[in-house]
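Contributing new records

If you add data, match the layout below exactly. Sequence lines come first and carry their own label; structure lines follow with theirs. Keep one chain per record. Anything else will be rejected by the validation script.
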Amino acid sequence: MTLTSVAPGGNVTGVEGRFAHSARTTDSPVTPNAAFREWFAGQRRTNRYEVNRIPFRELVGWEFQERTGNLVHHSGRFFAVEGLRVRTGWDGHESEWSQPILNQPEVGVLGLVVKEFDGILHFLMQAKMEPGNLDTVQLSPTVQATRSNYTGVHRGSRVRYIDYFTPPRRSIVLFDSLQSEQGSWFLRKRNRNMVVEAIGDVPAHDDFRWLTLGQINRLLLEDNVINMDARTVLSAIPYLGGPDRAQLTMDGILGRLTEIKARRDLVQRSIPLNDVTQWHRDEHTIRHESGRHFTVIAAEVSAVGREVTAWTQPLIAPAEQGVSAFLLREIDGVPHVLAHARSEAGVLDVAELGPTVQCQPQRVLGLPDELRPRYLDLVLSADPARVLYDTVQSEEGGRFHHADNRYLIVKAPDGFPVDVPDDYLWLTVRQLGALLRHSNYVNIEARTLLTGLRGIWAADGTYDSGEV
């Protein structure tokens, strides 16, 4: 077999060119597509696990603190379920509420090892089970580990390949940035997103396979194959594109975002879980009295192929599938996506740029028009011919139980205005990627959509068009 490219040629010098060449390569003798399918199906068969909901009293190593009611681990590590009181104010609209939230202050590592084979970059992907995953095993980064994991707090086996990401590294760092996690469920949570190029030979392991970026992009078109942690790291890959004739300059984008943060109120105050209002705890759940939002549950997990093979833990179970969507339109011949500056309960710095629409649709469709997310109806009623990307993807299976979003990229209808409300910004894909060099500018849902958009463009040869 030869390495197969969608669109031959193109610039393969420099970091961006090398990644673009890998993105054009849709099959590889290192891991042929047919061999990958057989291996991945086998991983889903053999990496067996059971996840059973249990009462909170059967959690091992976890307890509700008597004074606060917070659900914590005896080690003081991992994460805790605490209370948070939030007050927001923007453009005359104010809101206040309290809720449970996950507090995990340690910074984990989400890292991809890349290496050239026959002059083409390949990514070392791991078949990994997480207790909350849909469709059991999914493809994760080479390393996906909390600090507690890779420093041995859990007393399990050593995290494989961690030496490529911690000093002294056996690699060259190509990308390294702290990026946020779900702001609705995590309090100021960040992970280190890294891409490193291996120096020398990389030991093989049956749970890992080398894939080109083109092979990964094809898998991004399928539901629940590439996990959330892989998608966020993939979004950070340097991107090859043509001239960037953008509506806003980068200084203009940063200025707009700074103004939004300065004008918008977001007041967060940690409170005891016992003091959260409208949420009720019984033997099995912590849930909102409306039945909306999410539920905190306890789970017992037994697994093969994990650092630890059996454990118990709390998980967050969303009340419904979410929707996250970008509207896309050309401005002066260049594709732009419409980003929304969103403030979520646990966000670190007031607001991040998120998708055009991000919500739990059943919860908001019954609201008055003025309180419903802007552009939601346009996205949900879009002509299928305008839908460029439509997949269901799981969120982080290590903390969330069967949490998924329908991710959509929708071409805006003819005549859709360039002028939009102050908290929306038109950005090119290159600009969105450039913001990822810094922390806390782009939220995790927008990063998944960025990865998906690059994936469909790579699959159809747009990497070489010079117009992105």
